[in-house]
Every structure is written in structure tokens, then in C-alpha cells.
Amino acid sequence: MLAEKEWRGQWWLPNVPNSSFAGTLSYSPEKGLELSSKYPIPDFFDKGKKDYYEIILGRTEEAKNITLSGCNFFKNMFLGQFFPRYAIEGMLYDSTEQLLFHRMIIHFNSLTNWSGISGFIYKPTENKTTAIVHKIPRGKKVGKIGSINFMLRTYISHSMNRSHTRDESIKEETVMSLESNHKLHIDEYFEAFFNIKNFLSLAMGRPTYPRTFKGFLGKYAKHHKNKNSVNIFCNLASPPREENAIIPQMMLFPFQTIKTKSEAIIDQWIKTRTKYKLVIDSYIGVTSAEKMYISERYLYYLRMLEGFYTIKYNSPKHTLKKKISVLREDNKTILKKIGINPDTFIDLGKLISTRDYYTHYNPNLSRYLLKGTELHHAVERLKTLLEICIWREIGINNQEIAIAYSRSVSRIQMMGIKKLT
């Protein structure tokens, strides 16, 4: 999903196969999917007076079959543009009800680092050399939503140089496989995908994005050849153009730190995300936004903490100062374990003044503002406090949370904490 792609071909409706038009389907992370034509579209699009089509079928110049699902239609004079929700490359479907799969494989950025799964085994030999053995790792179950199991599966690729140097390499990549014992609709898989994507972003400490989607018509087989599979493209939040991999040392909770209870954590995550949906969705949105004024981030995190407090304690009438004070007090044990003095972690006086200044613009408060580096530190501290609240709701204990944040040196630095006590 990070690379742009384009398909030129003929396009038609399932019930009007003999009336097609030439057009180009394009995909980019910024604009999503778009089908456009430089030529007049067939009359039947006019006669229907519709602005939405469930299915449009296509065949590219390379003879690839494509199904477009959920197409919004906009017409400008004689030309038309369609904005599909999904593009399925490799199969023709006559209706949305037919978009059924046994499993879906998602290539996430940094998932291999997060999983910590490897099939390489290093064995010392008698002559003081090291033998490297590779065995394909078994799949690891992360959790389950309804009838969909989240499985970590590792795929390998070989490359060999058959020249005199005889170089050979094996590359591992871990993917997230969403699997079911019976076929499920594509919408069900994507609902599960958003749940696991948001959890991974929280666990990695940074947003992660899917690189590719692949749908499978059959159940998982260890030595499958991907013959009954299709490539899936969809409209998602735009990832950055150049996305650096997240190393395990920068992550809050790599899989190896939670693998013994990951199923229970995922189960509780689903409940937590349902209960605090507005808060968690806002958190994911703000952390995913590349370009945002620091003052806007500050206000958003305050609103999220207010929202979390209101939902948890059912006390909407309390003041902002009261809400932040209670949340800080609730988590002071963790803050102390991280090496943070809870009393100085957040300056409540400046916090309120800064909020009032940006929301009501009272120039008399300008001398009490959080500014520059101090404001950046405050944003990271508010973000960390919110994350700690969420992790506790998910079921991570105080000691595990403290270890995770103590290990993240960059997070400690961004909060402006120079030395752990």
C-alpha cells in the first residue's frame, strides 16, 4: 500500500457486459483508488442517475481481472470518475456478497522486528567455527476476534549467486495472517485489521502501516503456492513516503514481552477500544498525523485525557485540573518506577493556563504559557500519561508498564527527563 500503481483497461458493469469503456485505475497512498476516463462513458451510467455502484469489473491491458467494490461516481460533463473502496486484483466478482475469503495476509511495516521470531539457529562447532541452521518458524497465535485468529507467520525468500563466490542468502519476513475456519466477508476482515493495526501502533510506540493485502480463497496450508489468492487495494490513512523501520529497542511492548498472555491482552484490547473508542481513535489519528502544530497536539491530548477520565469515572462535571490531578495520582506508582517525580511531572497551573490561552485567547495568560521545548515536553508527558491509562485498562500490570517506558530511552528524553532516579 506504500507504492503507487496504475492499471489501464476496459471497465463495465456486471449486468451490462457488452458495454464497456476505456479507463485508468490508479492507486496512491495520498489519493487512494480512482478510476477515470478521458473518453465519454457509456449512456447507461447517465440513465441510471446513480452516484454509487456496488461493483465495476475490469480487464487490464495485461489481461488481469479486477473487481472494484463500493464505487462512488462523479460526473463532469461527459467524463466520469469513480472512487472505489476496494480493488481486488486477480478475480471477477458479480456482487459484493461474493467477496469472501478464508484468510487475509497483511504485510505490516516493522512487524518482523516486533515479532522477534526467527528460524536462524547458531551452533558452535568443534573447530571453533559457527554453523548457521535455518528452520521455518511455526506460526504464533497473537489473539482472536470472533472467528478470526491473528497469526504471526514467517515467509522466507532465497537468493543465490551461482558464480565462483557461491553467495546465498535467506531473508525472513513476518506477516500478520487473519484466518478463519470458514469464509468471511472482506468487510469483516478489514474490521479485524483496524483493531490489530491500532494495537500494533500502540505496542510499537509509533504508527505502523500495511504494505500489502492479499486475500486467500482456501484455508492455510504450510506449502501453499498462492494460486488461489488475490491482491487487495483499499483507501487508508496515508503513510509517510519514507517510513523507517522501528527497531525493537524503540518499541514499548514487542511480542516477546507479552507472548505468554497475548490472547488475553488482545481480548481485553477489543473491550477497551469499544469502551474508549472516541479516545483511542483520536489517539491513533493524532499520532498518525505527520503535520500538526504542537499547540494542536497539546489540546488534543488534553481532550483525550478528559474523555478518558469522564468515561472511566462517569464524572463529566469535574474540572480539567481535577481530572488530570486524579489521573496523575492514579498512576504515580508507575511514574515513580519509571523514575519520574509525579508532583513535577505535569505543572497543573501552566497546563490550565496554556489550555485557556489557546482555546479562549486571553493575552493576560501569555506569561504563564508552556512554550518552546517546555511545550514539547508537556505534549510527550500528556501522551505518556494517556498511554499508561490505556495499558492498565488492557491488563498490563504496573511493573511491566514501568519496565517498558524505562527501556525506551528516546521517550524519556522527549519527556525532558534527564536522569532516572
Describe this structure in words.
This protein is an alpha+beta fold and 421 residues long. It folds into 3 domains: 5-94, no CATH class; 100-250, no CATH class; 276-414, no CATH class. The chain has helices at 43-48, 111-115, 186-204, 255-258, 262-275, 277-288, 294-313, 320-330, 332-338, 342-345, 348-360, 372-394, 398-407, 409-414, and strands at 5-13, 16-28, 32-36, 52-60, 65-76, 79-83, 86-89, 100-108, 120-124, 130-134, 140-145, 148-160, 168-185, 210-216, 229-234. The strands form 2 sheets. Strands 1-2-3-6-5-4 form a 6-stranded antiparallel barrel. Strand 1 (5-13) and strand 2 (16-28) form a beta hairpin. The longest helix has 23 residues, at 372-394. The mean pLDDT is 86.
